[in-house]
TrEMBL record, chain B:
Protein name in the entry: ABC transporter permease
GO MF, one annotated term: transmembrane transporter activity
Span of domain MacB-like periplasmic core: 20-244
Membrane topology term: Multi-pass membrane protein
Amino acid sequence: MWKKKDKLPACVTENVREDLIKLVDVVKVYDTGSIKVLGLKRVNLTIKRGEFVAIMGQSGSGKSTLMNILGCLDRPTMGHFYLDGIDTAELSADELSAIRNRKIGFVFQSFNLIARTSALKNVELPMTYAHISKKTREERALMLLERVGLGKRYEHMPNELSGGQRQRVAIARALANEPPLIMADEPTGNLDTASSVEIMELFSQLHREGATVVLVTHEENIAAFAGRIIRFRDGQLVSDLPNVPQSQGQEETAKTEKEGAPC
Amino acid sequence: MLIENMSMALHAIRSNKMRSFLTMLGIIIGIGAVIAIVSVGDSMRNLFTDAYKDVGFNRAVIMVSWDVTDFRMTDYFTRDEMDRVRDVYQDKIQYIDSDANTEAEAVNGRRKVKYQFQGIDSNYTDVQPLDIIYGRALNTADVKGAANHVVLEDKGAVQLFGTADCVGRTFRMTINKDTQEYMVVGVYHKDISPMMAMLMGNGQTQAGFLPYTVLTKSNDYFQDLNFYVREGVDVNAFLAELTRYVAKLKGRPESEIRTISVVEQMGSVDTSLSAMAAAVGGIAAISLLVGGIGIMNIMMVSVTERTREIGIRKALGARTRDIMIQFLTESAFMSACGGIIGIILGVGLVKAGGAAFQMTVVVRPSVVVMAVGFSALVGIFFGLYPASKAAKKDPIEALRYE
Ligand SMILES: Nc1ncnc2c1ncn2[C@@H]1O[C@H](COP(=O)(O)OP(=O)(O)OP(=O)(O)O)[C@@H](O)[C@H]1O
Ligand SMILES: [Mg+2]
C-alpha cells in the first residue's frame, strides 16, 4: 500500500488498478457554526480507468462537493475515498498537493488561468511544480497547445483569448503531467454552444486516447458526450446509467472547422 | 525552481510598477542615506588622517596648563630645560623644539609678502621630510649660529622674488621690532589637496622655516615643548612618563601638566565620527523598519488580491512551501531592488557632493554588499507573515474567492 515516504511518480506508474476512483460511504458535512449542512450523504461510487462519466443534478445537490473530494482538494468527513488505491484520508496537505499535481487534471467553469501570464507559462505550471526541466516543460507545453489548436497562440495572455480558447488552454494545462484523471466542473458553463461542442469534442478525444474523464454539467446535450451519467439529488446518488456517446462523424467535421478557423 | 520563483517575482513586481516603486521607497531612502552618510564619514576620516599625516602621527606638545590660576615665571620652559628633556629621553624623543612661530612681513624692494615662519631645529627633516627643489634645508651650523637663514615654500618664493629659484637672495623682515636682513638658503615644494587648502584658510600667508634659535634666544622663556616621539614608542605611555618628569621639573602636580598629541586628537575625531555613524545607523534602522512595514503591507494586499491565483496554484499541485517561497522571493526581491536603487542613489549623491567640494570620496564595497544583503533580509523578514498567510490558504476557499 501507499506509504507516506513513497515517491509519487513511482506510484503513478505502479498502481495501475482497475478502479481509479472508489468512494465508500462518503459523507461530507459543512460545519458553518450554527447549522451543519450535509453536502454528501453516504455516497458509494466506483469509476474505472478509462471511463467518461457525466455528473448531473440540481443546484446544491452536491456535485461540486463530490468534485472537490474526487479532486483531492477536500477530504470526506466520514467514509473513504480511494484514488488509484490510495486512501486520501491518510494524506497530509502537501501529499494531497502532490497527488493533484501528478494524478489529476482540473478544468474549471471559470477557466482559472493565471492572469497576465502567457498561455505557455500557464500550461507549464503543473510541470514546474513537478520539477520538470525548463526545456522539457516548454517543449511539452507547446505540443499540448498545438494539440488543443492553439499552437500559434502560446505567447498570448489570457485576456487576449476568447472563452473557448481560454478553456482549451486550461485543458492543455490539465494534461501537462499526463494525469490518469481529468476532472471538469461545468467546463462549458461559461461558453456558447459552438465553443461548448468544441470543448466536448476535445474531452471525447482525450477519453478515446485512454483518459478517465469526470465532468459535472447541467445540460443534457453536454452529458450526452459521456459514456455514463450519474445523477445527484440532495447529496445522494439517485441514478447511475450507461449512455451511448454522440457519433464520431459530427466530431470530425467540428475538428476540421476548428483547424480552418482563424486563431 | 529558484529561477522560476525569481522570474515570477520579477513578473509580479513589473506588473505593478508604480505600486512596487512606492513600496520600495522606504528601503531606497534608508539604504541611500546609509550609503551616503557612511561614505561621507569614511571620506572625512580619510581627510583627517591625511591632515594628521601632514602634522605627523607621533607629534605632541607638553606644557603647564593655562588653566592654573597662579601662573608663574617658572612655568615657562627654558632652553636648558629643553636640552635636559632631550638628553634624558634621547631614546624616546626623535626631535624637539621650542614651538616657536612668528608672523612677519618680508620686504624685497617694493614686494611685500606676509609669512608665517616656524622655528625648527636642524633635524626637523627627519620627522617632516621637505621636498627641497632649490638649495638645501637648514643645517646644524644655521641653528647653532642662529643664522638669519630661511627655507621658503616655492609659492611664497615666487611672490617675493618672482621666481622659485631664489637661493642666495635676501630680504628684510622685522621680528620683535628688530629689522634685519635674511637670506634664502633653500626652497621646497608641497602638494596640498584643494580641500586641505580650503580648511587651512585663504592662502594669503606664506609658509617658511628658520632656525628656532633665531626666535628663541638662549635666555628666552617659552610656553611649551614641541616634540616627535621615536617610532615604536607608545605615545600615550610616554606622555604619562614625561608628564611625571615635567611635573617634578616644574614643581607642579601632574594634574596641572597638559599634553596634546595627534594620536589623542585622532582618537577624538574617530569617536565623533563613530557617534555620527551610530546616529545614522539608528535613523537607517528606523527607515528600514518603516520600509519593511510598507513591504509587509503591500504583500498583505497582494496576497488578498491574488487569493484566486493561490487557489489555482494549489489545485495544480503547489505545496505550502512552494507558495511560501514564491511570496518570500517576491518581497525579498522588491526589498533588494529598493536596496540597489538606494545604493545607486546614495553613491551618486556622495560622488556629486565630492565633486562639488573637490573631495575624493570613498565607497567601501563591503558596505554596498552589506546594504544589499541587509535589504533582502528586511524583505524576507517582513515577507514572512504575508507569505505564510498565502501558503496556509485553503485551496477550495481560495478558488471560490471573487
Ligand atoms: N463551504 C461550504 N460551506 C457550507 N455549505 C456548503 C459549502 N459548500 C457547499 N455547501 C453546501 O453543500 C451543498 C452542496 O453544494 P455544492 O456546491 O456541492 O452544490 P452543486 O451541486 O455544485 O451546485 P451548483 O450546481 O449550484 O454548483 C449545498 O447545500 C451547499 O449550500
Ligand atoms: Mg457547483
